[in-house]
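Bench notes, bay 3.
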Amino acid sequence: MVSLAPASPPETSADVPRSECRKGPSAALQSSVLALNRNFMAVQVISAKRAFCLLFKGQAEVVNVEGTQYCSYDFEGWLELSQMKLSMGDRYDHEDWIQAVNFQIQVPRVIRLTCYDQLPKASVKFNRRNIFLRDGHRCQYCGKRYSSPRLSLDHVLPKSRGGGETWENIVCACLKCNVAKGGRTPAEAGMKLLNKPTKPKRSPLLNRQLSLRKYECWQHFIPQSVE
């Protein structure tokens, strides 16, 4: 089972980390980088700032997907490649770049930890943010999408009736629907769930990132079907 532990960026009403929604040096440093262990297995999503620290210390290398091949670069090699891309005008909007004092360098999307053999953590954190992401920030009763402050968590089987705080019993609900449902089951309240709540097979935030063009290369290292 593959389950990653992404970094924890703040949320926006559009359900996208703020670092994905704005440009600039600080935003680029907070963009996400997939870290692989020494055996090329995905283990964690880290910030670009952390990735560059590991690269500079020689504790990691860049893994760049070029067509159907993977090419590895140390820090100096990646800097040289970045400079070559700039000189050729080979730079795209979906890429992130860092402006240092004397040079510009592209943010890698994948790095390999050269001395790390541990396997990925096999768990998805049960928390408010992941429930909102799992349900797409949509109320599971009225189907409308809301920003986080306008959403709440609802117990499908009320707590007063023995309903627990589990993936299978908690759904995203707007404040109006939550109040209307009250301490009843959906059937008793005449309300229908959009989707049956289940535990995600992997991090909802990771699924969100995989849908973005800038992180599509991660799909080479993360199985599309996981248990």
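Next record in the batch:
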Amino acid sequence: MTTEWRLILEQLQLEKVIADFSKSIELNPDESSTYVKRGVAYLSKGEYEKAVAGFSRAIELGDDSAYLDRGSAYGQKGEYARAIADLTKVIETNPNSVGAYWERGQVYINKGEYAKAVTDYTKPIEMDPNNDLAYRHRGVAYVDMGENDKAVADLNKAISLRPDYQNIYERGWLYECIDKHDKAIADFTKLTRMNPEAPDGYYSRGWAYAEKGNYDMAIADFTKLIKLNPDPLDGYYCRGDAYLTLEKYDKAIADFTKAIDLGDIYCHFSRGLAYAKLGKNPEAIADFDVIIRLSEDPELIPKAKKEINKLGK
């Protein structure tokens, strides 16, 4: 079953669940828990206004537990002040609410208030020193603060508590972000062994190999990614970029063309560079023109114009 069909089935199941809860509400409009359950279903669909309305109705009916759900919905909706107000209310009522600290910490991350996020993620650790998820979340917050040593320490702790896929994945990307490519590659290699059919490990390791300058190994990983991934756009773009760096322009053009066919208009720029290297100026200019006409990246448009000027148009 393709990812697209899975998503369709999930949406159909959510529609059925929502319809069932709506029927229950018609029969018993004063049952607050049903509004909460339907709100969670709406939240899963990304229908935030309807989710908030349901949680608000539950609160009106006296269900204070719905503040946590409404705070989460506000956070996902981007209404951070309201999210923090609801989640803070939960914490004031129940200082041991791990969920409220999680949610508020994520809101602070989204707001760029990383120190406050670290404080919130520290609370679950104080309540349960063996909570690997808390260390992982706090480690990611430290990354955003630029506190890389503390981030590594937290992710090491998370892995020591639970050496699972996600914890290793996060540490691998931390190592990659701080240019410790060999350590990143070691972590991503663990991922490919833990789940050889998952594309994440190959994409991540391929990226790390490319950043290290080992383009042949990067190409091997991106090729594997293309075979495994039902939506291989990233694989074609990344492999094409590696081919471009290795001056294998025909192969780069083939991969960028695949990426363009899959909907990535920005690959017109990279393909234009490859065409220009082969002396195919009309094709290069046509690609750069697409960027100028259709790109929403304000930094890429002047680059495309500059490339056209180089070609003498």
